[in-house]
Write a structure and sequence with these properties.
It is a single chain. The longest helix is centred in the middle third of the chain and has 27 residues. The protein is built from eleven helices and no strands. It is globular and about 60 Å long. The chain folds into two domains: 47 residues, Homeodomain-like (Arc Repressor Mutant, subunit A), CATH 1.10.10.60; 141 residues, Tetracycline Repressor, domain 2 (Orthogonal Bundle), CATH 1.10.357.10. With 218 residues, the chain is an all-alpha fold.
Length: 218
């Protein structure tokens, strides 16, 4: 990331510093994904991006608020993508809509791997960060899948697998390839973020998931 060195003037950061806030957040989320929450310091981060640490304190107040701001930026972008897809797919049947949502999640996982890395880091335990992440960002995203899954199960189009198991299976199948990108490269020599690999993953998972979930003999 290349940002112009900001002058360390006291008081409110100037307009040029403020204009770089989104770039700073997008850089910071990469640091949180790589180092974990505990491995990131405001002082070190300000030096890496070349701005005064007063910028962080003025706009965010604390490392926790910076972390939330990073995730909110990406989480809202993801939610908007699903919201747009929800609107344009409203006239389709539930199975076709689910396939579209699955493919969208593949594309999102490839576009925002740091978001997924942080989710994996945080949701194994009960903490202020994990509860905020689940309630504010993940629940709104998961609901798009859950509503259609429950409806299709009630229509006897899908096997009645408990929602927790089913969502874990679907989300895990889609995101694991990208969260283990280095492993996939070392074992199989592929770049999982290559456009062709992403599209292939989307198609394969829809085929595998729905071959197992569809009830063909009602």
């Amino acid at each position: 990331m290349e940002l112009k060195q900001a002058k360390r003037n006291p008081g409110r950061p100037n307009d040029n510093q403020s204009a770089d806030l989104e770039l700073i957040l997008r850089y910071a989320i990469k640091e949180f994904a790589k180092c974990g929450f505990g491995g990131v310091s405001i002082n070190a981060l300000s030096k890496k991006v070349g701005v005064a640490d007063s910028l962080f304190h003025y706009h965010f107040g604390s490392k926790l608020e910076l972390w939330k701001s990073c995730l909110s930026l990406i989480g809202r972008e993801i939610e908007h993508k699903f919201d747009d897809l929800n609107k344009i797919s409203s006239g389709l049947n539930g199975i076709d809509r689910l396939k579209m949502f699955n493919k969208q999640l593949v594309y999102i996982s490839a576009q925002y791997p740091e978001f997924q890395q942080i989710v994996v880091q945080e949701v194994f335990s009960n903490s202020e960060r994990s509860n905020w992440l689940i309630n504010d960002l993940l629940k709104p995203i998961y609901r798009y899948f859950e509503e259609i899954l429950v409806q299709e199960q009630s229509l006897c189009n899908l096997k009645k697998i408990p929602t927790a198991n089913l969502m874990s299976f679907i989300i895990g199948s889609i995101t694991t390839l990208f969260s283990r990108s280095y492993l996939m490269h070392k074992l199989y020599g592929i770049n999982v973020f290559d456009e062709e690999e992403v599209e292939n993953h989307a198609e394969l998972l829809n085929e595998l998931i729905f071959n197992g979930l569809l009830l063909t003999n009602k």
